[in-house]
Amino acid sequence: MRKLIIAGNWKMYKGLEDAKSFAREVAPIAKGMDTTNVVPILAPAYPFLAVLQRDLEGSPVKVSAQDVSSHPDGAFTGEVSAAMLASLKLPYSIVGHSERRAYHAETNAIVREKLLALMQHDICPILCVGETLVQRDAGNTKDVVVDQLSGALHKINLYNQGEIIIAYEPVWAIGTGRNATGEQAQEVHAIIRKWLKDKYSETLANGISILYGGSVKPENIDELLAMPDIDGGLIGGASLKPDSYLRMLESAVKRANGEQ
Length: 260
Ligand code: 13P
What we know:
Layout: E1 4-9, H1 16-31, E2 38-43, H2 49-56, E3 62-65, H3 82-87, E4 92-95, H4 98-103, H5 108-120, E5 124-129, H6 133-137, H7 141-152, E6 165-168, H8 182-199, H9 202-207, E7 210-213, H10 221-225, E8 232-235, H11 242-256
Parallel strand pairs: 1-2, 1-8, 2-3, 3-4, 4-5, 5-6, 6-7, 7-8
Helix pairs in contact: 1-2, 1-11, 5-7, 7-8
The structure holds 1,3-dihydroxyacetonephosphate (13P).
């Protein structure tokens, strides 16, 4: 059975003290939850990865990077390699976030290089895909998402469940307060799962977690998690406050344990 994932993407928010006090508050509470079937994840900015890992030790909360360099090493000022992330024993890294695609000109080909770099170091990529409002209104959602998937996973063989996580993040829903409804998200998640099945196998497709991202908050998480192909959330704004993050985690725990 796929586990539910509650991943907080802190983007360029939270300094050292803020990150530490979040961990102090969240770690003991998360530890007290039955997270057998749930994976809580937090993705802080690069400088705080190691601190957060240390402060969350002994709790079920895992730490993720928000991005990675496509290069193995070299003169790339400001970049962080997959080997560096692996040296921290980081289990996850987000890759291909729409903000990277939009503001840093990341193409599907670059996203693919980054995916490969992560996989070579046994870091599970959280691959983001999603359409803009213009693309949705033009009826191109499926084409855009499939193009992003096939570009990023071109000639990449997946062998194991849990080797990759996909996050469907419609750009029009990110930071806008306007989330996709459960049905809207489910429709695209089903397309993604079908694509994975056709490219790989039914078993593999059924083992890959597909997260929804875009204005997820405690008030709408239950509706989203109720959908058969939605396996959790990649959450920006609503993951910044411990209380809000914990409420969403609690929702996932309840659902995973069949309590709602
Ligand atoms: P918001 O939850 O703030 O809409 O951000 C979503 C997102 O981009 C997570 O990666």
